[in-house]
Specification:
By secondary structure, this protein is α+β, with helices and mostly antiparallel strands. Helix content is about 80%, strand content about 5%. A hairpin with a 4-residue loop joins strand 2 and strand 3. This is Trimeric autotransporter adhesin YadA-like C-terminal membrane anchor domain-containing protein.
Length: about 600
């Protein structure tokens, strides 16, 4: 009996080769993925179980834990795909072995075609389900991208608002400095006016004393009294000028009060803006919670995708069982049947398409894992931006409190200035009354001088009448002696007045020198303030440490007015709740003094 060797049809060989090729490609991908992971499957399953247990307990995962969970799930999925590919390879080998004994049984081939059609339909259903799942994931990715775009726009808007608040705070700080300088100038002018008023009062008292002394010798000192009268008038003119200066100072102080009132309004508006920004930050926190819920939904979708893969594995097991049954049936019906070549060629094309679709789905799964990882990075970036915005808000609150404190200090200084001005007005009123009294006294002195002049003329005429028109030489000598003595006294008084005037000029010069010193100190203080503001601006530019167990090193540049500074700093985050930070800054111009800060942050 001649033995017949059964040769598998070319179509079946092509199908088996395609299945073996798919298993080889999937096995290569799985092997590459397994080589890129340092964890065994037991460790992967243990890590996933631990993270899922954390979610089961109601705790919220951190961003890095979410990324880790997604990566481990992807590794588990790839491992399952590798096992399924191996099973497919085994099934292909088994099918190849079976086709060697099939022969040409036409009736069995038709049954096989029917089963293949059913399998194709089932595969189509699975592909359709996978496509729907893929479309759902794509839609979720698009929604998440839109959410991320919205968060980015919100962060950008918040950054713009923070910049506006910083600008308003800097303007308020400039106005506060200007008000401080104006108040210092007002204090200096008030002190100078007080000194001048006191000096003028002393000079006036000295003039009155001289006038009272001259009144005793009025007959011999007419010319000197006239000179003193002129000086008294000059004092009156000087006092009038001082009155005008004080009135101008009062008007300048009133203008300063208006400016400080405007500053109070600006501080109030800035405080309101800060409150609005805090409310906006709370709203942004709610939006971040919504984003976290969206990521949880994506994780749930990934879990459903994993379940679909497990269902596919179960289907492969059923297919293996069916292949075993087919082998038993083929052993019983091994007398051969003719194959329908055209239908098998069609089935071959369908199976090749299915293989390509399955391979594309595996690639799309890899792309989904990459997109999820990028989404986790974007979420971490948004978290950092939110933390930076919250830090800017805290700095704005601090600057607003400083501005408010400075405004309160300005109000207290203005109240003190008002009290001093009220006292000066009272002193000016007293001086005006004294001047009026002095005018009355001078008028009385003029009347007495005229009366004494008439008396002297009458005495002179009486003396000449007694002497027959001749004057006694001895009496003239005595009279000249008395006149000389009186003249010496007048000269002595004039010397005293000149010395007092010289001392007054010296004191005025000393006051001017002190004013110049104060101006120099104010200018020096202005430089120090600008250097300090520049240093603080540089220190505020240093970044907060974010990643746990990482040391962050940063540098920044700051400027205020014409001054600038550079700063360097470092930070370390011990855990998600505790972090340390420190920095140092130095000015690049002027005194080049340094500033530093150290800080600790605990979140709960």
């Amino acid at each position: 009996m001649k033995r017949t060797t059964l040769t598998p049809p070319p179509l079946k060989i092509a199908i088996v080769s395609a299945i073996l090729g798919l298993g080889a490609v999937s096995g290569a991908n799985a092997q590459q993925t397994q080589q890129s992971q340092s964890l065994s499957m037991q460790q992967v399953e243990a890590e996933i179980t631990q993270l899922e247990q954390t979610l089961t307990n109601g705790k919220q995962l951190q961003n890095d834990q979410v990324i880790k969970l997604l990566s481990l799930s992807h590794i588990r999925n790839l491992h399952a795909i590798r096992e399924n590919s191996q099973k497919a390879t085994n099934a292909g080998n088994l099918y190849f072995t079976q086709t060697r004994t099939v022969g040409a049984n036409e009736s069995r081939s038709k049954e096989n075609e029917k089963k293949i059609t059913e399998n194709t339909n089932n595969i189509d259903k699975n592909i359709k389900q996978l496509s729907q799942t893929q479309n759902a994931l794509i839609e979720q990715n698009e929604e998440i991208n839109q959410d991320i775009q919205g968060v980015a726009e919100l962060v950008e808007s918040q950054g713009s608002q923070i910049e506006k608040n910083k600008t308003a705070i800097e303007q308020n700080a400039n106005k506060n400095l200007i008000n401080v300088f104006e108040i210092e100038k007002n204090k200096t002018a008030i002190a100078k006016n007080k000194k001048h008023i006191k000096d003028l009062a002393r000079a006036q008292l000295a003039g009155v004393a001289v006038m009272e002394e001259l009144d005793k010798n009025i007959q011999e000192n007419k010319a000197d009294i006239s000179s003193v009268t002129k000086k008294a008038f000059q004092n009156q003119i000087d006092i009038q000028k001082n009155n005008s200066s004080i009135e101008d100072l009062y008007e300048a102080t009133s203008d300063n009060l208006d400016k400080i009132s405007q500053l109070d309004g600006a501080v109030f508006n800035n405080t309101q803006n800060i409150k609005d920004l805090v409310a906006y930050s709370e709203m942004q926190d709610k939006y971040a919670q919504q984003q976290t819920d969206a990521i949880d939904a994506l994780n749930k979708a990934s879990s459903e995708n994993t379940q679909n893969i497990e269902d596919l594995a179960a289907y492969n097991e059923l297919q293996d069982a069916y292949a075993k049954q087919q082998t038993e049936a083929i052993d019983a019906l091994n007398k051969a049947s003719s194959a329908n070549t055209d239908n098998i060629a069609k089935n071959q094309a369908d199976i090749a398409n299915n293989i390509n679709n399955i391979y594309e789905l595996a690639q799309q799964q890899d792309q989904h894992a990459s997109d999820i990882k990028n989404l986790g990075k974007a979420s971490l970036t948004n978290t950092k931006r939110i933390a930076t915005a919250e830090l800017g808000i805290a700095e704005n609150k601090k600057d607003a409190l400083i501005a408010k404190k400075q405004a309160n200090q300005n109000k207290a200084d203005i109240t003190t200035n008002k009290a001093d001005i009220t006292k000066n007005k009272a002193g000016i009123t007293t001086n005006k009354a004294d001047i009026t009294k002095n005018k009355t006294t001078l008028a009385q002195h003029h009347q007495r001088i005229d009366a004494n002049k008439r008396t002297i003329d009458a005495n002179q005429r009486a003396i000449e009448a007694k002497l027959g028109g001749k004057v006694d030489a001895q009496k003239l000598v005595d009279l000249e002696t008395k006149v000389k003595q009186n003249q010496d006294k007048v000269d002595e008084r004039l010397t005293t007045v000149q010395e007092n005037y010289s001392q007054l000029n010296t004191q005025v010069q000393s006051v001017d020198n002190k004013v110049g010193t104060v101006n120099a100190r104010v200018n020096d203080l202005n430089d120090k303030v600008e250097n300090s503001m520049a240093a603080q601006a540089a220190l505020n530019g240093l970044f907060q440490p974010y990643n746990v167990g990482k040391v962050s090193v940063s540098a920044a540049v700051g400027a205020y007015g014409s001054k600038s500074a550079i700063a360097v700093g470092a930070g370390y985050r011990v855990n998600p709740h505790l972090a340390f930070k420190g920095g140092a800054a130095i000015n690049t111009s002027g005194s080049r003094k340094g500033s530093y800060n150290l800080g600790i942050n605990y979140e709960f």
